[in-house]
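User: Teach me something about this protein's shape.
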Amino acid sequence: MQIIDSFSSGSNGFAFRRRCGGPEDQLIDWFLDQQFVRIPAGYRATVFREPRLASGFPDLVIVLWNEAVAQLWRPARASLAASDLRIMHFLVSAGPQTSGAVSSVFPNPQRGLARLEEAGMVSLHEGRWNHSSLETIFAATQIIAIEAKMKEWREALAQAHLNTWFASHSCVLVPRIPRNSTLLQDARDLDLTVFAQEQSACAINHSHEAVPRSYVSWLFNDWAWRAAENAANQ
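Assistant: First, the predicted structure itself:
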């Protein structure tokens, strides 16, 4: 399991909130030590600790990804920008589009489309941009977001629910289940998982795949691959 945070990111292009230590940090360390997330054979796990997103700083994002899929990606993919991956998600969501249709959503997308084409992710056919097979360009099968709180569990639920815009599984991590609280029922209503340090923890269900929910899903998909490539080249 590769862990990427403010101390290990270096010049990889990732942005993080700087870790300050304290009880919440220790709770996250405990969770990582327990290895609740099982890594299937042929897969890798990349952990991003407090990565910077437009929606804030989730405490943990764990990406399980198929190494065999990513091994076939072209080196040009490492140069893609976040704006390019926005275009990518649009094409996956909306289907084949003309250049004019893409331009109506994204200003001046020509360079982004060219970079995606060079990376082997899209192609122009009969005047429309088509994406390559999702099974060959999206390696992540699980994107798991964790929000940790020592006391403010309602705030953790709200943040965990927000993380579902990119994560296939979103979880709350607390030291204990507060007595007479509605935490577990509220989490079930929101389709969230709760981990508690002092009680038995739930296993994360791996029965469904993490189809990209937003361009941020693509960001984590590619960041995991880039982090592994950077580590291999050091």
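Now, about its shape. The radius of gyration is 19 Å. The chain has nine helices and eight strands. If you'd like, I can walk through any region in more detail.
User: That's plenty for now, thanks!
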